[in-house]
Amino acid sequence: MDSFERVFASLNNRPVDRPPIFPHIGDHAGIIHKLTYDTMYKDAKKVTEAHLKALKLYGYDFITIQVEPSFSVAEACGADVIYPEEKNPWILRHLIETEADLKKLKIPDFMATLSTRTMIEGTQILAENATVPVAAFMTGPLTFSLQLMPYKEVFMRIVKNPDFVHQLIKRSTQVIKAYIKILKDVGAQILVICEHDAQMLSPNYVKEFSLDYMPEILKIYNYNILHLCGKVTPHLNVIAKYLQKLKRINILNIGPYVNISETQKLLDYKIGIAGNIDHVRLLPRGHPTEIETTVHAAIKASGGDFRFMVAPGCEITADTPIENIKAFVHAVETY
């Protein structure tokens, strides 16, 4: 099978020759090809060249222009974002600092901001040239809202003024929909919704402030992967029944703190799993043999589910050794 056949067979729960490799590679592709971090948000041609070279080097099954686009989308909305050469970007000034600022949040012209234009043009170039499916990454409704207003302010208002938080998340969802629709129009085929910050909420809040906004997002793409970071087993114990009811979530991406087989049971096998390789210690600092053993254990834990995809718990860091990512991919191919 080629990557297109393998990925879409897996997403449709049909037999595959091996699990697809879903690598979460963003800045790493540029750094290993001598690009600076800021270039990854400013030059679509250089970025796509780096990603296509990384794809050829490693041989995984997905490609994307950027794993962390929410800084750029927040910038397009009006936030002040800095893009250093030597490290990841960060927000200098949030768009929304008081409740009165919510009126500033509107759907922007994404092509008018260099960073989001790079994401869009890069996605189109990848769609025209890549030999694997192109994924669009975007943060989820809760996590993106936390890029627009400081964490402390949002979390305080979840308790003191939940109506405001709902208005914020509702408007954030409209921005997300507009952005991912453009990425789909230029060629992205699969949406990855990164709800990183669900882990920071009480499990009892996740449905109300995240999952209830998902249906609007999920209906745009035929295939959707929901990514949850961190120690989210307590959250899954609460939200699993709600996840099962959401249409068009094909895969749940989990990290090393979450058990694969137990999560499958929790979801009543209605949603596939991607994971759960440690991207913090193992991939950057582990020995290739240790990586191979861990990947084999993850595949075994999946019990032969055709939907299982081998994936790190989150983005593979830029400093991860090339030989370790090769070992990650090779372990899947030789299982």
What count of helical segments does DSSP give? Answer: 15
Main sheet: strand order = 3-4-5-6-7-8
Mean pLDDT: 97
What is the CATH architecture annotation? Answer: Alpha-Beta Barrel
Class of secondary structure makeup: alpha/beta
**Quantity of strands, as a count:** 8
* Element-level helix/strand string: HHHHEEHEHHHEHHEHEHEHHEH
Main pleated-sheet profile: 6 strands, parallel
CATH topology: TIM Barrel
Runs with pLDDT <50, length 5+?
Answer: none
Distance between the termini: 16 Å
Outline: globular
CATH class: Alpha Beta
Strand residues, percent:
5-15%
Question: Radius of gyration, rounded?
Answer: 19 Å
Overall tally of structural domains: 1
Helix content: 40-55%
Describe the structure concisely for a colleague.
This protein has 335 residues and is an alpha/beta fold. It has 15 helices and eight strands.
Name the features.
two-stranded antiparallel ribbon; TIM Barrel; single chain; 335 residues; alpha/beta; globular; six-stranded parallel sheet; 10% strand; 15 helices
Characterization of this structure:
- By secondary structure, this protein is an alpha/beta fold.
- The chain has a single domain, classed as TIM Barrel, CATH 3.20.20.210.
- The chain is 47% helix and 10% strand.
- It contains 15 helices and eight strands.
- It has helices spanning 3-11, 27-31, 44-58, 70-77, 114-129, 141-148, 151-160, 162-185, 203-209, 214-218, 233-245, 260-266, 282-285, 288-301, 322-334; strands at 80-82, 90-93, 135-139, 190-194, 224-227, 251-253, 272-277, 309-312.
- The strands form two sheets. It has a six-stranded parallel sheet. The chain has a two-stranded antiparallel ribbon with strand order 1-2.
- Helix 6 (141-148) crosses helix 8 (162-185) and helix 14 runs parallel beside helix 15 (322-334).
- The two termini are 16 Å apart.
- The mean pLDDT is 97.
